[in-house]
Amino acid sequence: MSEVIYLSNVRLSFPHIATPQITKKDDGTEKASYNAEFIMAPNDPGFAKFWQVVNAMAVEKWKEHAQAVLQMVQTDRKKRCYGNGAEKINNKTMKVYEGYDGGVFITAGRDRMPQIIDAAGTPIDAANVMACQAEARKMYGGCYVNAAVKPWLQDNKFGKGVRCDFIAIQFARDGEPFGEGAIDVSGMFGAAAAAPAAAAPWAPQPAMPAPPFAQPAAPATPSWM
């Protein structure tokens, strides 16, 4: 069974595709991550395939304890890369984030940029930074994309969990942007006034004011500075 899952025509949220998200870790160092969330209906074939793969991996890794481990992971949102849309609460408004209610989501990320696929289905060379950024700008929170993700199981000193690598992404179609989108304030502006013409270099210049007879001495720098 392939561990790479193809998600078709899912909604994109919180994208960091060609430019990484920088966060600070507990030790004060910075972590760069390319990541995104993909929202879909609970009966989406991609989500069903994702869950099928995760279960198969869990049985292979944890044997008869697989269901117990997955149940433990399910009770801790920080231990898993998937969830019910109702779990995505905005801490400021205490309401479910726009677009999540009634759906499920998968969070995927990694420390290097995912493959960015153009409209023709061709991967863009990661070395072509400008082309990658131009294609990534088409993908905003609320649009629809196709994506490839790869689940993996965490089992280390930080505990057990279900995580997901961000493999590739392709813009599929436009959607209603999350939030208020771009604000059009063009009605607040009129034509810019023309700048005054520069004086000809041969035109007489006003006399400079004479310097004062004495300048106050600069204060001494305190020894403690």
Number of strands: 7
Q: Which parts are unreliable, with pLDDT below 50 for 5 consecutive residues or more?
A: 208-216, 221-225
Q: Tally the helices: what do you get? A: 3
Q: Please indicate the percent range of residues in DSSP E strands (runs of 2 or more).
A: 25-35%
Give helix % range: 10-25%
Quaternary structure of the protein: single chain
Reported by name, the CATH topology is OB fold (Dihydrolipoamide Acetyltransferase, E2P)
State the secondary-structure class.
alpha+beta
The CATH C-level class name: Mainly Beta
The helix/strand series, from N terminus to C terminus, equals EEHHEEEHEE
Give the full name of the CATH homologous superfamily.
Nucleic acid-binding proteins
**Major sheet: size, sense and barrel closure?**
7 strands, mixed
CATH-level-2 architecture: Beta Barrel
- Averaged pLDDT: 87
**Number of domains as seen in the coordinates:** 1
Report how far the terminal alpha carbons are from each other.
Answer: 67 Å
Description:
The chain is of the alpha+beta class and 225 residues long. The protein has a single domain (5-173), classed as Nucleic acid-binding proteins (OB fold (Dihydrolipoamide Acetyltransferase, E2P), Beta Barrel), CATH 2.40.50. It has 3 helices and 7 strands. The chain has helices at 45-62, 66-74, 129-136; strands at residues 5-24, 30-40, 82-84, 104-110, 115-117, 144-156, 159-173. Strands 3-4-2-1-6-7-5 form a 7-stranded mixed sheet. A hairpin with a 2-residue loop joins strand 6 (144-156) and strand 7 (159-173). It is globular and about 75 Å long.
